[in-house]
Amino acid sequence: MNKSKFKINNSYNSPENIDFTIFGLHKEEIISHDGFLNDIRYWKDYNGTIYSNLWVHEHRKYNVDSDTGLAVTREMTIEWYLEDDTIGYTRIYPLKYYNQVEAIAEGIRRRSNIIDKAKVYCINELGLNYSFDLLNSVKIQLDLFVQGYTQPLRDAIASSTKPYLTQKMKDDIVAILTY
To answer: CB–CB of 138/156 below 8 Å?
Structure first.
C-alpha cells in the first residue's frame, strides 16, 4: 500500500476537487504538430529552462470532423501526483462536445498555435529583424491562415524571394504550417 501523500494538498485525501490553477504552478503546454493543446503539465519548479516536480498532468484528445477539420469532441484525463512521483489519482472527465461556434474558436486557437511554432522557428533561424520583415511581408496570408484558409501562407513562404531565406528554411516553415 502506498503511504505517499498528494503533492497538491499534502494529504492522503483525493485532490480532484482542488482548483490547482490557483497554486502558482508553472504551466507547460504541449502543442501537437497540428496545433492541438494535447497536454498541460503543472510543475512546482521551473528555472527558465528545466521543469521539475510535476504535480498535475492534463491529457487531452480531440476528435475532428473529417470534412471540416473542426473539433467535434474532446476527451480529457487529469492525473495528480504523489510525493513519490507516482500517479496517485486519475480522473476521466465527461466528453466535451463542441457546438459550431466553439469549434470555430478552437480551430482559430489551433492555427494560432501553429503560427506561433513557425514564429519561434523564424526567430531562432533568422533573428528578430528578418523574422519581422518576413512576417510583415505575409501579413494578409497569416490572417487568412488563422481564419482557416491555410494554403496561401504556405504558397507565400514557398515562393518568397527574401534573400535571407534559404530553400531549407522555406521548406521547414512550410512543413510547420502543414498539418
So the answer is: yes
Ramachandran category for residue 24: left, alpha or beta (phi over 0 → left; psi -120 to 50 → alpha)? left
Looking at residue 21, the DSSP 8-state letter turns out to be G
Residue 47 CB-density burial (10 A; 0-12 exposed, 13-18 middle, 19+ buried)? exposed
Structural domain spans, the chain: 20-98, 103-176
pLDDT tens-digit series, residues 115-138? 999 999 999 999 999 999 999 999
* 157 class by beta-carbon count within 10 Å (0-12 exposed, 13-18 middle, 19+ buried): buried
Residue 75 CB coordination number (10 Å): 14
What number of H helices and E strands is found in the chain?
Answer: 4, 6
Beta-strand relationship, 26-31 and 71-81: unpaired
The whole-angstrom separation of Cα 41 and Cα 51 is 9
pTM of the model: 0.86
Cα dihedral 151, 156, 159, 164 in deg (nearest 10): -140
Give me the residue label for grid cell 510543475: 43
CA 21 to chain centre: 17
